[in-house]
Amino acid sequence: MAETFVRKFNQSKYLLLLFIPCLIYYILFRYFPMFGVIISFKEYNIFKGVINSPWVGFKYYEMFFQSHDFYKLLRNTFLLGLYKLLFGFPAPILLALMLNEVKQRIFKKFVQSISYLPHFISNVVVVSMILMFLSPSSGIVNQLIQAFGMDPVNFMSRPELFRAIYVLSEVWQHTGWEAILYLAALSSIDPMLYEAAEMDGASRWKKTIHITLPGIVPVIIVLFILNIGSVLDISFEKVFLLYNPAIYETSDILSTFVYRTGLGQGNFSYASAVDVFTGIIGLIFIYSANSISRKVGETSVW
Amino acid sequence: MKKTVFGLVSLLLVIVLFTGCSKSNNGGSAEGSQDGSGIATTTPAGSTTGSTMKEEHTISFLNYSLPSWPYDKEWLVWKLLKEKTGVTLDVQVPSGELNDALNLTVASGNMPDMMLTLESELAKKFGDQGALVNILEYVEKDLPNFAKFMEKYPTLIQNTLTADGKLYMFPSEGLGVTNAMIYLYRKDIFDKHQLQQPQTWDELHAVLKKLKELYPDSYPLTFRNGLDKLLNIAPSFETGDKYYYDFDKNEWRYAPVEDNYKKMVEYLRTFVKEGLIPPDFLSIDTKQWQDIISTNRAFITIDYIGRIDFFNKSMRQENPDFNLTFMPTPAGWKGGKALNAFTQIDESGIMVSSTSKQIDDVMKFIDYLYTEEGRDLVSWGQEGTTYKDIGDGKKEFTGGYMDLTDLQKKTGLATYGSNLWFNPDAIIALASPELKAAYELTPKFVDKQQPKPAFTPEEVLILTTTGQEIDKFRLENISKFVLGTQSMEDWNQYVTNLQKLGVDKILSMYKTAYERGLESGSAE
């Protein structure tokens, strides 16, 4: 037994060495902070520290469930995440499929580079760009609308438009980047399959449907499951920078609420209770998505 | 086998990390507080005069500075303080927000002797949690001059006390004058078109319309920070921002459900509708606001008094006529009150850590800042170097300082942590003639200072939960009313909903806390 372990260890020691930074990262920044969730069951006294603060049980959870904002926050977070998944998830697949059909190498590389650049722009910059473009007094979008003889729209004061603005900007920002994974999956499809299909007289469309798509289905499923897990895990900073009181109705989400009560009001225990709740919902989502996928198809994350 | 070994190793790692951290945490705080209290009781109390403590000390201090005057340990003010008190300050300045740094420092259990805070609420919170020294316990022994100061400014002390009558922060006094917020207008534009200063909000409406006709691309009234400015407008409508004390009726009231508040909202709604206020005013930040003012697209604004010099100095380089200056506050209606909210408050102060090993020395150092001599020193600096006496007890700066920021940057005078009791004459001495005039006129238009009741930790919990819900609801609805996306007919519905959320509960909390404060104040 021990011998096999030593042998196996020796075989893969360099791989293990490479793995160490990753392990340390996860222990330090992901697992270790998890002990912090106990402050959601305590009346956290910052001076006494986590260990010595008195226990209060589910007090803060009850407070949150009874709060008037509970339902609204949950709905906003869920809908925003759902729309992001609905529109944001297929977009990179489509982009990758389209790029795959482009025969001219230079053009393909050019489009690919341009499309993933926005991923590297910080959210702060993206949001100020959005606010500038959509400004009712000087924004370019409203100047266009007025050029067509219509009345300017005050985009950022209309609750019904917030989700669309958010989802569109997310798609613009991340589609190109996310398409890279699919492009990598596409390049691993055996060219012989295409050649065989050509022999049989398959059209390009048929080849896409019957070879390309099935070829990347495993990647799609894994990414889909991971995405479902983060439905509630919406980029805090973007929503926080983008929203204003007039559109709280659709834009106030769990994480902005946590920020306002936790850091804004110094109510750490309450805020972490809300965060733990968000985490549990995320876990339920990812778990159910995974088990469904395991039952229906053969691909799953675990 | 492989799995078990890995499992064991990772378990071990986790345990080591966990115990290691908690050990250092406990050790740090326990040891510190023991030593701190030990010294407080065993050290023979020094004599009460400041002059006896000439021996050299180093006091650690978590301070804060602003980008326009980054902290410099070579500043004159630190040298002068060292000469007088023998104290060298070992200053740390956080790279980010002060509040985050404070939270981290207190949580680490490794606190410096003194810490600056910009909010007295934070001092109350940390104090209630045991991190800070209750200053009142040291007043008799170490703080003779602070005791005199307390008699001189009872309201300030009252507002700094916690619900159970403890004092966890040395309050600041004097620099608050710079926090005055007033109406500012472009006098040059008004003179050019022979427009009159508006006396009431109806006249304000008329003059804004006129300006919009003359400059169609402008938004004549522009201010930053969205609905925060309701605080400054409200007194003219004889109402408040949120919960306020009505000195005529002697009771606490919630402003956003009052008819007068509604009148104010209706004016703003009309202004937005007619393009007199920018349609995106809710998201206008400081930068955008400055752009709008400096490109002649707004002619009236509400902001800090010091913005007079800020804009005039930079704008006159290209437009010598540019003159943004004090405008008398318009009254809500004919014969009504014309008042700005009292914002001349400086909430900052210095807290002393309960874990400090030299609490008495820290107290004596701080006591010097509350002497007349210390006040002059941190306000004016050194005679012959920074100022000269011009008779009648008046002084004049001689160092050739352009403005307050210049003084701060070059000497450290009037910066955070270098003073607690400040002489506002020093600020006014550096002002331009327009700003000086504004400082003289401002007191005529200022509302009474609102009392600031101290809440118990349980009350704070309700304020930060129910209170937050109410405030979010108010903010959301008032935004919609002002922007015109919600009909004014819904106002009654809005008021009912606010009451359902528990406004009365919070209101009675304010009342209880206020009365508790009055009782403890009279008992002393």
From TrEMBL, chain A:
Q: What is this protein called?
A: ABC transporter permease
Q: Where is the ABC transmembrane type-1 domain?
A: 74-289
| Pfam families (UniProt xref) | BPD_transp_1
Q: Which residues cross the membrane?
A: 14-32, 78-99, 120-145, 209-232, 268-287
Q: Family membership, please give it.
A: Belongs to the binding-protein-dependent transport system permease family.
- For the keyword Transport, the answer is yes
Where does the UniProt annotation locate this protein? Cell membrane
Q: What is its main location?
A: membrane
Q: What is the lineage of its organism?
A: Bacteria, Bacillati, Bacillota, Bacilli, Bacillales
TrEMBL record, chain B:
Q: What are the Low complexity biased-composition ranges?
A: 36-52
Q: Where is this region: Disordered?
A: 27-52
Q: Which SUPFAM superfamilies does the record cross-reference, listed alphabetically?
A: Periplasmic binding protein-like II
Q: Is Mitochondrion tagged as a keyword?
A: no
Q: Does the keyword Cell membrane apply?
A: yes
Highest taxon, organism lineage: Bacteria
Q: What Pfam families has UniProt attached to this entry?
A: SBP_bac_1
Keywords in UniProt for this one?
Cell membrane, Lipoprotein, Membrane, Palmitate, Signal
InterPro entries the UniProt entry points to: Bact_solute-bd_prot1, SBP
Name listed for the protein in its UniProt record: Extracellular solute-binding protein
Organism this protein belongs to: Paenibacillus mendelii
What high-level taxonomic lineage is stated for the organism? Bacteria, Bacillati, Bacillota, Bacilli, Bacillales
